[in-house]
Write a structure and sequence with these properties.
Blueprint: H1 13-22, E1 24-27, H2 33-44, H3 72-82, E2 96-105, E3 135-137, E4 140-142, E5 146-151, E6 163-164, H4 191-196, E7 207-212, E8 217-218, E9 229-237, H5 250-254, H6 258-261
Antiparallel strand pairs: 1-7, 2-9, 3-4, 5-7, 5-9, 6-8
The structure holds 2-oxoglutaric acid and fe (ii) ion.
Length: about 280
């Protein structure tokens, strides 16, 4: 079935409950076998060996992988946790995409290849108020910086998926390190117990994991001998906030369908209607 013909799926009460409780949810088996095959071929030929050694870092914004940016299975959820009802429309998105990368990790891949060495981290420590933090108020979630991970190969628990300290997005206290502004648990005397308390997931190829970047999370050694990890990491934010610099070529965005393009419009609200992407109205 063509992705474009699929209906947007609203966030369910169960998903809202568990996303608020734990800071992450798994959508198992979203993609068809045909989609998985095509997307894997694109990811494996992209030159991505690890996320920080990509030959062409823009490949996940192109080809069939581009359709993941606004896949109907995640659009309803992102609209709910990154926007408000008055801003929703059929013609443009009410949230922004600000980062995407491909990670290909063969069996034996070590987290030491990452800049952060697999240290559990967050965007900003959630025990302090800031523009990226997770909030739930007035019966509504606002998830600040939110990540969607598309797993294009099977993931087995304990063998290298992203791990999470469930509930830590709402933590009020320090991670135990020397600096309360440090966005990771390094130099905390209880780093070990934090790691022991983290959990991950098993899922078939074609699943999506959605998590708030206020949740402590970590990359892990890929020890699964049966297949590599092949994952697309897409990051989203509010219409009015930006964390990553995007620097995506105008021509690449202009070639997208208009609604998808709106994911890349400028980051402002007052003084006119900010709905459509254009060369003059783009996030940088
Ligand atoms: O590589 C991983 O599993 C973790 C990625 C990560 O830290 C993130 O998506 O923010
Ligand atoms: Fe991260």
């Amino acid at each position: 079935m063509n992705i474009m013909n699929r209906e947007i799926v609203p966030m369910t009460d169960e998903q809202r409950f568990f996303f608020d409780l734990r800071g992450w949810i798994l959508l198992p088996g979203v993609l068809t076998q045909d989609e998985i095959r095509t997307m894997k071929a694109e990811a494996y030929s992209s030159g991505a060996v690890t996320q920080h050694r990509e030959i062409n870092p823009k490949r996940s914004f192109q080809g069939t992988l581009q359709t993941l940016l606004d896949h109907p299975a995640i659009v309803g959820i992102l609209s709910e946790i990154l926007s408000e009802e008055p801003f929703l429309s059929d013609d443009y998105y009410a949230f922004r995409c600000e980062n995407s990368f491909i990670a290909v990790r063969p069996p034996g891949w070590s987290k030491s290849e990452r800049r952060d060495g697999g240290m559990p981290h967050v965007v900003r420590p959630p025990q302090q108020a800031n523009a990226m933090r997770y909030q739930a108020a007035g019966g509504k979630i606002f998830a600040g910086l939110t990540r969607v991970v598309w797993e294009l190969e099977e993931v087995k628990s304990g063998q290298g998926g992203t791990s999470f300290l469930s509930g830590s997005h709402k933590s009020h206290f320090s991670y135990g390190g020397p600096d309360r502004f440090r966005p990771n648990v390094s130099d905390s005397s209880w780093e070990g117990s934090i790691r022991e308390s983290m959990e991950d997931y098993s899922c078939p190829a074609g699943s999506a994991v959605i998590f708030t970047e206020s949740l402590l999370h970590a990359a892990n050694d890929w020890t699964n001998p049966d297949n590599p990890r092949c994952a697309i990491f897409n990051c989203y934010n509010s219409l009015w906030a930006q964390w990553h610099r995007l620097n995506l070529d105008h021509d690449l965005i202009q070639a997208m369908p208009p609604k998808r393009r709106s994911l890349f419009r400028g980051v402002w609200q007052i003084g006119g209607e900010n709905h459509a992407y254009s060369q003059e109205n783009r996030s940088l």
